[in-house]
Amino acid sequence: MTEKWYQLSVETHRRYGGKISVIPKVPVRSIEDFAIYYTPGIAEVSRQIHKNPEMVFELTSRWNIIGVLTDGTRVLGLGNIGPEAAYPVMEGKALIFKYLGGVDAIPIPIKAQTPEEFIFVAKALEPALGGINLEDIESPKCFYLLDKLREELKIPVWHDDQQGTATATLAGLINALKLVGKKISDVVIALIGAGASNIYTARILIKYGAKPGNLILVDSKGILHPERDDIDKMMLENPWKYKYAIETNAERRKGGIPEAMKGADVVIGASRPGPGVIKKEWVASMNKDAIVFALANPVPEIWPWEAKEAGAKIVATGRSDFPNQINNSLIFPAVFRGALDVRATTITDEMLIAAAEEVAKFAEEKGIHEEYIVPKMTEWEVYVREAAAVAAMASSQRVARIPRSYNEELEIARSIISKSIKTLEILMREKIIE
């Protein structure tokens, strides 16, 4: 099945020459319209922005444009394949941004050899963008870039592999725990992989109520704990991972993945593509009604049917062709929709939790069960509600330049997202897009 998707993807990309394009959103009826959109009329628009730079968000498309930036150093499960090979992934991200969030996103893979070069490019692009989505950047560089750019830019900066995956994971876990009758404060959670996704997932889970001591993180060298031989090196080279080596794993477990999973209630895999990274016998060693999130792409750490055969009650992957897709595609279009509409200056963890809770609530209202713990990407109304929750939280935290209530943003987001979806439907119906 995976090989089938590979082949279809290459054929489709070749046929269409990519996935996105730019189309005008203003009427062009005669030559006189160009005197409004361009010269001479445009001069007054520029003058007004020069007097008050904030007017750029009202008089241009910048309010709704984000850049999808990457250096191509950690693309999907493919590793460091470079910015050119990262372009189709960034373009796919831009397609989802537009279709499900109404956000105009531009793929921007860049040749940056050092973090400082990357930061220089991002800062130079700020006047063109309403926000920045960082994507597919190796760890620990991604942590540094996110922290630094959030600190120095006045627009929302977000790293989807960290924040997006963590938010989607929390949304799924909220409902999975409801189905098995367990509380997040009680469960033992093994996080397989200690890169961008699971480090931020640990952060969000703790903020949501998980006990730090109940988290057990595993990297390529084994379980994180304070007595590891490389702990001093970790402190210097990866302080983000070091923090969780010190604060988690109250039992001081040692070993690898099987030791981390034994007696755990939840396992969250965000490591390397499988299958076979997580073995059936390790799932069988978990507590009753185990929850298994195998999120590696393009192939999960363990096939979902294998996890079920080993006794897992609820299984999720990152793929759309299996039940329970825990994927950041459920999150990033809506988070940016809400953030852009209130002109947020940043994206806080509380905004992420609000998004996760709204996603979980949407699915619960539909009727959650073992194979439906989060909405599907086709249920586009969830993006509207999620955007409203994000905007309302940003407003309550005073990080919104234009504060809006949940209900106010609900109508704005619904109008923008439905227009985006309907536009594509019309283009397909009229065979402008075959």
UniProtKB/TrEMBL annotation:
It is an enzyme of class 1 (oxidoreductase). CDD domains: NAD_bind_2_malic_enz. Residues 162-395 form the Malic enzyme NAD-binding domain. InterPro entries: Aminoacid_DH-like_N_sf (IPR046346), Malate_Decarboxylase (IPR051674), Malic_N_dom (IPR012301), Malic_N_dom_sf (IPR037062), Malic_NAD-bd (IPR012302), Malic_NAD-bd_bact_type (IPR045213), Malic_OxRdtase (IPR001891), NAD(P)-bd_dom_sf (IPR036291). Transmembrane segments: none annotated. It holds the Pfam family Malic_M. One of its GO terms (molecular function) is malic enzyme activity. Gene3D superfamilies: Malic enzyme, N-terminal domain (3.40.50.10380), NAD(P)-binding Rossmann-like Domain (3.40.50.720). Keywords: Oxidoreductase. Residues 17-150 form the Malic enzyme N-terminal domain. Its EC number is 1.1.1.38. Belongs to the malic enzymes family. This is Malic enzyme. It comes from Pyrobaculum oguniense (strain DSM 13380 / JCM 10595 / TE7). The lineage of its organism: Archaea, Thermoproteota, Thermoprotei, Thermoproteales, Thermoproteaceae.
